Structures are given as structure tokens and as C-alpha cells.
Amino acid sequence: MSLIDIFDPKAAPKPIGIDLGTTNSIVAYVVDGQPRCVADCDGDPRLPSVVHYGEHGQIIVGKEAIMLAPTHPRDTIASVKRFVGRGADDAETKLLGTYRFVASEDETDAKVIKMRVRDRIVNPVEVSAEILKQLKKNAEGVLRNVGGAVITVPAYFDDAQRQATKDAGRLAGLEVLRLLNEPTAAALAYGLDGNKNGTFAVYDLGGGTFDITILRLDDGVFQVRSTGGNSALGGDDMDRAMASVLLSEMGFDDPSERTPEIVRLAMDAARQTKHALTDQDVVDVELPAKGGATVCKRFTREAFDALIMPIVEQTGPACRRALRDAELTPEALDGVILVGGSTRIPAVRSFVQQMFGKEPLGNIDPDQVVALGAAVQADLLAGEGNADDVLLLDVLPLSLGIETMGGVAEKILPRNTTIPAGAKQTFTTYADNQTGFEIHVVQGERELASDCRSLARFTLRGIPPMPAGLARLEVTFHVDADGLLHVSAREIKTGIEQQVEVKPSYGLDEDQIEDMLLDALDHGEEDLAARRLAEQRVEAQRILMATRQGLDADGDLLNVVEHAHVLTAIDALEASLKADKVAPIESAVAHLDMLTKAWAGRRMDRAIAKAIGGKGVEDVARSVENAGGIEAHLGQQTEKG
Amino acid sequence: MNPFKILELEPRFDLDLDAAEHRHRELSRALHPDRFVGRPASERRLALSRAIEVNEAWRTLRDPVRRAEALLNLHGIDSGETSSAKADPELLMEMMEQREALAETRASKDLPRLRDLSATMRDRQARVLDALTKAFSHDPQTALPVLAELRYVRRFLEEASALEDELL
Lengths: 641, 168
Hints:
The structure holds 2 protein chains of 2 kinds.
Chain A: E1 14-20, E2 24-31, E3 34-37, E4 47-48, E5 50-53, E6 59-61, H1 63-68, E7 76-78, E8 100-101, E9 115-117, E10 120-122, H2 124-143, E11 146-153, H3 159-171, E12 176-181, H4 182-194, E13 198-205, E14 210-218, E15 221-230, H5 235-249, H6 260-276, E16 282-288, E17 294-300, H7 301-313, H8 316-325, E18 335-339, H9 346-356, H10 369-381, E19 391-393, E20 400-403, E21 409-413, E22 421-428, E23 437-443, E24 453-460, E25 472-479, E26 485-491, E27 500-502, H11 510-520, H12 524-554, H13 560-576, H14 582-595, H15 597-611, H16 617-620, H17 629-633
Helix pairs in contact in A: 2-3, 4-10, 5-6, 5-7, 11-12, 12-14, 13-14
Chain B: H1 3-6, H2 17-31, H3 41-62, H4 64-74, H5 89-108, H6 111-138, H7 143-167
């Protein structure tokens, strides 16, 4: 194996799907139309999401890292997903307390968690990137050349957590085709299997997160009706509940007496016991007691069930709310899909059965189903599958709002809005000659902005001085298919259009990401430039291919002159690829883009007419010149609280 | 923005929601960003804006209050909540009583009573929706007070189901 150069840039790049889990991560791909997981040499596809930072800077991911955890608990990061996109001062951050968190210096600094491992400081994005790198490497062993990747996230992840996940992908050198919600991925894996129509619930209880999603499958379109959950609830909580029982048995009732090593030992024993109790009714655990003796604790299934029931029951309200949001009763469901290792637990299965009144489906391994679905989506996006057959229509998991006077969060896009989605809101100044306006975007269901998750706070400047209430600030929000928010704003009253592009961040800005990328590469800037060139080339090739396909399909929508111009621009772009420079390629792409703009509009009109069955074709046809970007198409928000 | 036009549907209040949903699905199939991966930037932007528009139209039409507002808009009638400020005092009175009843079930944690209240209100919603259909087919102007009633009913139902969550 070591003699073979695994990565082969000449091999055709294959898209991959990644389930970046709290406890385990899996990478999968599609071969002969069927998704398949990449397994390690033992045949196990699960890569434990554990990263060990070694003494000499080496980084170890997976099973070997787990082995090092008992002796190096602080230099071995597990369940990093729980910290992704979270701030240093978030309550949940303190829960898994064995790491050395670096105190934040100021408010900006506090937006991202930092942990000290050995003599370096890492953040959750970097730790996640190590896991992704390992998965990429494993995939290259099978596929030789890895193309774009679809990475799954819990449906309940907020904007900051999604952005952080995407950045981790970039940092790992992956082209992130799409962030996909885990339950949707699971449904995709099941949907292609049976190709059935109907309404399904996906109950996903993993190591650290719980998601419930109700979705409808109609002729290959997966439409998410509602989604909900808890981004800090899962099997880890069960382990902790058991570990605390075990720690008492061991004589460590007082938390201050517990060393990280002892806690780790109890957690490992708890996890093993939990797994064993899936098939057995009684499990005996032996552990060292305080003072050197050995204690033996007998765990019965009943005792275990009683211990975890409060945790399992916490999933109930979210299930009921998701059903209500979808305007459904449990009887209306055609099936329940189980996802996540924790759904192997018999008590969880019977809870689900009781909740929804039907036997849950479980014929695909609940650990693998998300990765398999992600692989299917990656294949579709890369244009390898039969893209006409399947489409995912996902939703915004948490309401988006802005803080208004008095600290109230006014919702501008409610949860469960189908994405991509957009809304416009108009604001006015409240003081004479006010030239700046602060906007605070929040995410969540709570009444007060301070109880919601803060996504972005930005100031619009340069408003011309005028009396209070005269300026009209129009803020446009749009959520893309990854569930990521983009905000832009302009002052319209005076005709001065000031455009501000705001990308909410979870605390790391573009420069910091760039720095981390440079650090990650052995030869720094040189490599980064080479990578940019490679990326630009791939992008250009894709555009060339898409344009040629467009000419074949819709060439008749171009007049003779336009046709000739497009052909010339194609040639120019091809010529630019021969040079080893980014700039000429960029400008050739931009030129082709500009020349094909009007044509793209006509093609879209044709696609729309086709989609609605040829009805009202003339009505649908819109003048391309009037297509003024996203803003022009957004309706005024009329809804008021 | 005229949501009926975007989905190419006849503007009417008693819309066939299944047909409208089907239309939304078919248009999404043509316009969703997933269909434009690897296409030039301007094409992707255009498709994105159309996809957003289609989603927004469906969100408007599936909600009876927003659907009624859109129809009134088409008729050039201001449907904002302020325009119907001259709300029927009798209706106001009745709704206040209903909300008091709701507050009582919150205090007494009386789930069966809450479900009764919701069921009664849902029946009422069905009647109001019928009345709205009639109003629109007859004279859109007469839809305004009925729409005001629908808003009250919907808000009550929303609060009731939030309360049900709390009590469960």
C-alpha cells in the first residue's frame, strides 16, 4: 500500500459525501448507482471523531487517537462538533470540561472557542478540519482523486455552526459542494432505495445532537415540511449520566477529586456498558475504586432505561412541535426513519414507536445512513447521477429576525421557510441627521433578541444627513441552499444606493481563515497560489462544459451575432487556461459570463415554461434586461407581527 | 409581487392547494440552485433569485391570511392591519373573552379544556374561510372584515398550540 502513490491527480475526481459526526465520522461515495462507505482495514467505516495532538506536532485522528485519550485527555479532542460555531462564553461550552480553554481577551475574541493542546492553540474549525482531512485521505485510498464534497450538518445547526463547518471543509482542502441536513440525507438514502411517495419523520439521535424532521417525498422531490431538535442532546448525555453513577461507585462523589483520567475512564466504561446493553439484559462493570481496590457494578437494562429516560423524553416536545408545524397528526405519517447510533437502544426505539404510533424503519445501518445519503447528493450535484429525478427542498431551521427598539426580535423569515428564501425590510432613521444605522441580525424563536443567537451586528454608514424618519434603509436578507444567510442593505430615499455586503461570521473572519490555510500548507503562500490556480481552472472547465451543453440544448435562443460572440469568448477562455496565471482566467470567465447573461435569462424562461407544462409561455417570458438580480425579485415584506 | 402570477395560477381565494403545491414543486425542479452547480455566475444568480421568488410566492399562497392580502392587493385594496382598524366591537369583545378563557387554561393547566377551545376555534376558522371565499367571489371589499376575523382566529390558534406545547 505504501508503495502506491494514493493521490492521483490524473484520475477522474469522484464526489464524496461526509457525515461529520460528534462521535464518529464516515465518508461515502457512489459506485454503479449505489452509495457505499469507505471502510478502514478492519472493515469498519466509522472514523472516531477524535483528534490527538502529539508531542512533536504530529496529529493522529480516529481509533489511535482514542487509545491515547486516557493518558493525554487534554491533548486529545473528542466531540469537537459540540463546540463548532460556539462562543467561548456559551453555557454549553463549559459542559465538557476536560480541555484547557484559552480565556478570551475581548468580546470579538470570545466569539470563538480556543483550546490549548501541547504548545499550540487550536479552535474547533481546525480540529474538525483534521477529521475531514483524514476522511479525504481515506477516500483517496479508494477513489484516487476526490472531487467535491457534501458535508452533513444537523438540521438544527444555526448559521454560525453551518458557516464554521463549511470553513472546516475549506481548511481541509475540500471543495464543499453543499451543506446538507442530516435527516434529509437519511431520507435520500432511504428514498432511492424504495422510491416511495409519502410523508416521513426522521428521528435522529446521535452522540451529541437530536433532530426531528418531517418531510414529504413526491415524485423524487423531497420537501422538508418542518424540522426541530436540540443541538446539545444525545448519547453523550447518556454516557455522562451513567459515568456519574459509576464515579459515585468508585468513591468519587466529590467532583473536585475527579482527575480528567478518572473521568475519561468512567466515560469509556459507561459507553461500553451502553453498547453492551443493546443486546444484553445485564452487564457487569469492573472499575478501580478510590484507594486502589476494584468495584464491580451490575447494570440491568431496566436500571439503564430508567437512567436515560429523562434524556430520551426531552426529544418529545420537539417531535410534537415538528408535527404541528407540518400540520400533521402522527397517524398521517407513512413511516419513521431512525438515524444515529443512539437509536439502536431498545428504549429509544420503543419511545419512538409510542410517539408516532408505528414501528420505525431501520433497514439501513443508522450509523451509515447519513453518509450514504450525502454521497447520493454529492453524486447528483456533480452531475453524475440522474439529476432530473431527485431534488431536495430544505427549510430554514430557526427563524431569522432583527432586533428592533426595545430589544424585541422581529421575525423576518420564520422557521421552516423553504430555502433558498429571501425577504426585504425597510427601516428609517430615528434622529435628525443620523448618518449611521446599526442592524443586529439574530436567529431563534425567543421573543427577546438577547435570548436568540446573535449572528451579525453591522452598521450602515454614509446615510445623507436628513430629518428623522426620512431616510429609507432597505435591508435584503437571503438564505442560500446551504442555509447560510447573506445580508445587504441600501439607502433608497435619496437615490444614493449604498450597497453593503455582510456575511455573518461565527467569529473567524476571512483573513483568519486564510492564515489557517497558510499554516496548514507546508509551503505557505506558494501552495496557496497553486491551489487557487487549480481551483480557478476547475471552475473554468466547468463553465466551458456548461456553456457547450447550453449551446447544444438552447443554442437556438441566441441570434447569429450573439452565437459568434459566445464562441469567441469560449476560445478566449480556453486560451487563458494555457497560461499559469489566475487573473487572465478570471477575466475570461467574467467576459463569457457577461456575454451569456441575456441568454441565461431566456434559457430560464424556457425551463420555467417547460416546468409548468407549456402553459402561459408568453406570460412567463420576461425581458432579460429587467432581470436586476436578487433584489429586484423580492417582494416587499408585508407580514407584521 | 403577484404570487399567483409567479406560480401561473388563477387568482382566487379557494385555491386548489394541492395543485399550487405541485406547481411550486415543478418550478423548483427547474430553478433550484442544485440545478445550476457549475454554471456561470450570472446564470446562478438569476436562477437563485427566481427560486427565491417561487418559494416566497408559495409561502404567501399557502397561508390564508397572506393569500387574502395578496388578492386584495391585486384589487388595489389596502389590506394592511391598520386599514381594518374599525374592527367590529362585537368581534373584539368575543375574542377578548376567548383569550381570557385561554389564559385560564394556562393557569389551571387544563389540557382537555384547551383542546376543546382549539377545536371550537378550528371549526370557526373553517366557517371564516368559507365566508372569505364567498366575499371574494362577490365583492372583494366585503372581504376586509372577514379577513380581520381570520387574523384573530389564526392568532388564537397559534397561541393555543404554543400553550399546548407548554402544558405537555
